[in-house]
Write a structure and sequence with these properties.
alpha/beta, 8 strands, binds erythose-4-phosphate
């Protein structure tokens, strides 16, 4: 499963890219608005940190299909290869996804919360669907189950659309979608750190260093 970062915070992106095997970035209007910066330069900076061609999923905000397509064209002119227009699974969004796919884009259908929305988006030509795991869990549903059903649907109907699973709040949810066969997960930077954190790991590393220092002094291997 590929790991993406779900943020528009350039410092967080630079740190995570340096440390972790990150394949790209997803943003949404809320994440962009949080940065309080002009959109163009912000996206340029994210593209520069990621490097040319890396996956960058940025969302359109217009309510109608025609303007969504125009927005996607402008974003592509700015962001180049690796740009995926994120389009919500509204009726107008589905129309835009179809037009974008026909025009050679690899669109991402976003705000997906049911398997049937995913199926329709895939039929419209979405390259990715983004099911929101925690938002389903938060209203008493089962987000991982939704993802598992989408994996099965795409498999059964031989659809090439991939799952860009999104909206996570816990490591358990991430493990659940990985086991269900999701192709990609996009995570907030702090959740990425949480995935690695474990008291047994910390205690183990501390113990190794203490034993080493007792025998050889400062913790460095000098051959
Ligand atoms: C998906 O691409 C969205 O940006 C995102 O994952 C939504 O997450 P949230 O439910 O934490 O806002």
């Amino acid at each position: 499963m590929l790991l993406l970062l779900d943020t528009a915070d350039v410092r967080a992106i630079a740190r995570a890219i340096d440390l972790f095997p990150i394949a790209g970035v997803t943003t949404n209007p809320t994440l962009i608005a949080r940065e309080r910066r002009p959109l163009g330069p912000l996206l340029d900076e994210i593209r520069a940190i990621l490097g040319a061609g890396a996956m960058l999923h940025a969302q359109v905000v217009a309510p109608d299909a025609e303007t969504m397509v125009t927005e996607a064209e402008r974003l592509r002119d700015r962001l180049g290869a690796g740009f995926h227009p994120k389009v919500p699974v509204t009726a107008q969004g589905l129309k835009a996804i179809r037009r974008l796919a026909d025009a050679g884009f690899a669109p991402t259908a976003t705000a997906v919360v049911t398997p049937l929305q995913a199926l329709i988006a895939a039929r419209a030509g979405a390259a990715f669907v983004a099911p929101y795991v925690n938002r389903v869990d938060a209203i008493g549903g089962d987000g991982v189950r939704v993802v598992a059903d989408i994996v099965r649907l795409f498999d059964t109907h031989h659809l090439p659309t991939r799952l860009l699973t999104a909206s996570f709040k816990s490591a358990q949810q991430v493990l659940g979608v990985a086991l269900a066969g999701a192709h990609t997960a996009t995570l907030a930077p702090d959740l990425l750190d949480t995935l690695l954190a474990h008291p047994l790991t910390d205690a183990g590393v501390e113990g190794f260093l203490a034993d080493w220092a007792g025998a050889y002094g400062p913790a460095t291997t000098v051959l």
